[in-house]
């Protein structure tokens, strides 16, 4: 029940210096300069973090935990994610989403998978719905889903400005956001609306019109894939300057980057240089989602699969390649998503919060150890706990 991590340098994500951290069950009990362990007190497990950084467990706010895809027919439905696909990437909290396919995968599947992953050791939440509007909920109502179902923290991913969307009107989107907002208020949850941004010309028009013409605040929306092309990325800079939250997708392909997608590590550097608040930027992986390719006639021509491991990969690149301060880079996958999604026990190494901690090698910044809810999931880069069917 008791673990002490000794001799590590702590980023909470702000830098705290060298500290010892006591884990009591699933929680962080104490953070002190030094925690002395009584001799012959065998019930305390000691983890030596010499030459390692301690950082908060990563939050991936957009993962197709039941699989995604299907744009190329039944055989292109991507498989369910496995536990070590998540933990080897340093992720200790995931938000599950459906996508294009809200028919062969549904909210019952999503919640069951979320509960399964939680039984295997990590924290899991979900959004209600898929690309389509009206939203396909569990209870028949967005507000009821958010208020009554513990796992549901918002709506998403709803497709906007995409040929695969259900082409809802601005008013349709406004009603979705209004229901989500009230559901969040009544339940103490974020009630966020996670929006899949496509390549269409309308881009953020609908969101900005809703913010301008209704009482719904800009922070009610979490548009993702905002780095998918140069035009949308430029729009993301202005949107974030207005106080909007922008989410960049770390899973990509060489072809996507060559065609104009902005690499996440570079996107973060650009936005910070442009004066965007570091608290308004998040990364997510789109893990286990399909990475479909379409030709100029919007015909399906190929498929890849998103990886949760890409999440920290881009943060590491932003530190090593873009020379960003470690605490700012870490925030996009720790404290920022925790704050945006109102996950009060996540995103920080602080006394009383969940014991979700990642140990990084100081020299390489590679993931060494992953602790989720006080349990060691990965040690020395190898999985200690595997999923039920791994």
From TrEMBL:
UniProt keyword list = Hydrolase, Metal-binding, Metalloprotease, Protease, Zinc
Reported modifications of this chain: Carboxylation allows a single lysine to coordinate two zinc ions.
Asked if the record carries the keyword Lipid metabolism, the reply is: no
- Identify the SUPFAM superfamilies for this entry: Composite domain of metallo-dependent hydrolases, Metallo-dependent hydrolases
Per UniProt, where does Zn(2+) 1 bind?
Answer: 62, 64, 286
Origin organism is [Clostridium] ultunense Esp
Q: Where is the active site?
A: 286 (proton acceptor)
Task: Write down what this protein is called.
Answer: Isoaspartyl dipeptidase
* GO MF annotations, alphabetized: beta-aspartyl-peptidase activity; hydrolase activity, acting on carbon-nitrogen (but not peptide) bonds; metal ion binding; metallopeptidase activity
Q: What is the lineage of its organism?
A: Bacteria, Bacillati, Bacillota, Tissierellia, Tissierellales
How would you classify this enzyme at the top EC level?
hydrolase
> What is this protein for, i.e. what is its function?
Catalyzes the hydrolytic cleavage of a subset of L-isoaspartyl (L-beta-aspartyl) dipeptides. Used to degrade proteins damaged by L-isoaspartyl residues formation.
EC number(s) reported in the record:
3.4.19.-
Which Gene Ontology CC terms are recorded?
cytoplasm
Cofactor binding note: Binds 2 Zn(2+) ions per subunit.
- Binding sites annotated in the UniProt record for substrate: 69-71, 100, 131, 164, 228, 290
GO terms (BP aspect): proteolysis
Cofactor list:
Zn(2+)
Domain Amidohydrolase-related stretches? 53-376
Magnesium keyword on record = no
Q: Which gene encodes it?
A: iadA
Query: Which residues does the annotation say bind Zn(2+) 2?
Result: 196, 225
Q: Where in the cell is it found?
A: Cytoplasm
Record family assignment? Belongs to the peptidase M38 family.
